UniProtKB/TrEMBL annotation:
Complexes and interactors: Interacts with UBE2C/UbcH10 (E2 ubiquitin-conjugating enzyme). In vitro, interacts with cyclin-B.
GO molecular function, one term: ubiquitin protein ligase activity
Catalyzed reaction equations: S-ubiquitinyl-[E2 ubiquitin-conjugating enzyme]-L-cysteine + [acceptor protein]-L-lysine = [E2 ubiquitin-conjugating enzyme]-L-cysteine + N(6)-ubiquitinyl-[acceptor protein]-L-lysine
Protein name: E3 ubiquitin-protein ligase E3D
A GO CC annotation given for this chain: cytosol
Lineage, opening ranks: Eukaryota, Metazoa, Chordata, Craniata, Vertebrata
Enzyme Commission code: 2.3.2.26
Any Pfam family hit: HECT_2
Function text: E3 ubiquitin-protein ligase which accepts ubiquitin from specific E2 ubiquitin-conjugating enzymes, and transfers it to substrates, generally promoting their degradation by the proteasome. Independently of its E3 ubiquitin-protein ligase activity, acts as an inhibitor of CPSF3 endonuclease activity by blocking CPSF3 active site.
Superkingdom, taxonomy of origin: Eukaryota
Gene Ontology annotations of biological process type: proteasome-mediated ubiquitin-dependent protein catabolic process; protein autoubiquitination; protein monoubiquitination; protein polyubiquitination
Transmembrane residue ranges: none
Length: 406
């Protein structure tokens, strides 16, 4: 999977309406290694001699018998002329041509930073509005926080015995916010409820997960789910009568500036892609962890995610678009889905439909506590899996799996 991000938003390479790659041209550049991999389908060029790669002005030009593809590279990144070399394509050599190349990365490109998530943007004594991502209805208005504090990470209670020489003082107690607090979890915020919530939010009690007869360690428990009263989208949970838990994949947090109205709702898949990609990058940097277990609120693993690298620049052009005169450039906010852009490269396993070998890997992760927990509602986990599968399907066949991982 390639979640990609540009200067501001963060997303996956596969947009909701992007075509499935069948052959065509695929490019991955590694900024740290200053190298690249170019894959050209046999439907575009029959042999290495049919492919010529040259440098343009801030671009890379791939010439094939089908037509030319011009890829505008991000600022500070340039192709080194004459460095493109044909390499074996392995078991997919009958379908694909593989080339290795070198790039130069300038300081301007190296200094670029990824955009921050809502967790990193919340500030003290500033006024914020919380909106439903689905319909952009204002849920909580004019919230000003005197304290914005991080919560302990997901495994804190497992090591509490190492902190205390007496019985666990936190047993059966919840960490709850005060009236003007905002407590930050890995994928959610905790806020105090006020009277305005009665008009904008609805509550429904439901089980967090069914009892699994083979797993008595994870009994069924009930949750009070919070939904938007306008569009019925699930937003989070009521973990106490006066406390809201809102997931960052379900709400948009905006600073209140004058009479400015909330922007139009973003495409759901794009918003989910960018939000999760940004958060995984932040967690990886802060925790020095590259393994994540995406879990439902009842603690059941849904996805195992292994972050490989964060320095890729990728572009994917289907065979039918090769020869199109339009250049494929780094994206603006509303640009077409075919583009070159910075990416996260992941391996993942779905625990809900796993093979025998994948179940063994999942069991190993659980027994050895591999994978920082990333908790999301079940429906969001399913949406995220679909986004990953869609992104994976746009890759060349040789890049869609590695052993038991997608």
């Amino acid at each position: 999977m390639f979640p990609h991000f540009h200067e501001r938003p963060v997303s996956l390479m596969a947009e909701e309406n992007s075509p499935k790659t069948r052959g065509g041209v695929f490019l991955e550049l590694r900024k740290i290694l200053q190298s690249g991999l170019l894959i050209v389908g046999k439907d575009v060029a029959r042999g290495p001699a049919d492919v010529v790669v040259t440098a343009g002005e801030s671009s890379l030009l791939v010439q094939t018998p089908r037509g030319d593809v011009s890829l505008t590279l991000p600022a500070g990144v340039s192709f080194e002329p004459g460095s493109c070399i044909h390499t074996p394509g392995g078991e997919h050599g009958g379908e694909e041509l593989h080339f290795r190349l070198r790039i130069a990365v300038g300081r301007r490109s190296s200094d670029e930073e990824a955009p921050d998530s809502v967790m990193e943007n919340l500030r003290l004594k500033e006024t914020y509005c919380f909106c439903c991502q689905g319909c952009m209805t204002r849920l909580l208005e004019d919230r000003v926080f005197k304290r914005v504090l991080p919560l302990p990470n997901g495994n804190w209670n497992a090591i509490v015995d190492d902190w205390c020489c007496h019985p666990d003082p936190f047993a059966n107690r919840k960490l709850l916010p005060r009236a003007e607090d905002c407590l930050l979890g890995d994928t959610f915020v905790l806020l105090a409820r006020d009277s305005s919530c009665d008009q904008t939010l609805t509550e429904e009690e439901s089980p967090a997960g069914a009892m699994d007869s083979q797993d008595t360690k994870k009994p069924c428990r009930r949750l009070t789910r919070i939904s938007c009263s306008s569009c019925s989208s699930e937003l989070g949970e009521a973990i106490a009568p006066a406390t809201l838990k809102l997931y960052i994949t379900q709400v948009v947090v905006e600073p209140v500036v004058g009479d400015r109205q909330p922007e139009a709702s973003q495409n759901r898949s794009t918003f989910l892609e960018r939000t999760v990609a940004t958060r995984l990058l932040e967690l990886s940097n802060s925790l020095c962890s590259f393994h994540f277990s995406v879990q439902t609120p009842d603690g059941r693993a849904f996805l195992l995610v292994w972050l490989l690298n964060t320095d890729s620049i990728v572009a994917s052009v289907p065979g039918e678009r090769v020869g199109d005169e339009r250049s494929i450039s780094p994206p603006a906010l509303h640009s077409p889905s075919l583009r070159a852009s910075r990416a996260l490269k992941l391996l993942y396993i779905s625990c809900s439909n796993a093979s025998t070998q994948q179940r063994e890997i999942a069991a190993c992760w659980e027994v050895n506590a591999i994978g920082h927990p990333v908790v999301l509602p079940l429906k969001v986990c399913e949406e995220l899996l679909q986004v990953m599968d869609d992104s994976n399907s746009t890759l060349p066949a040789s890049m869609r799996c590695m052993r038991s991982y997608e």
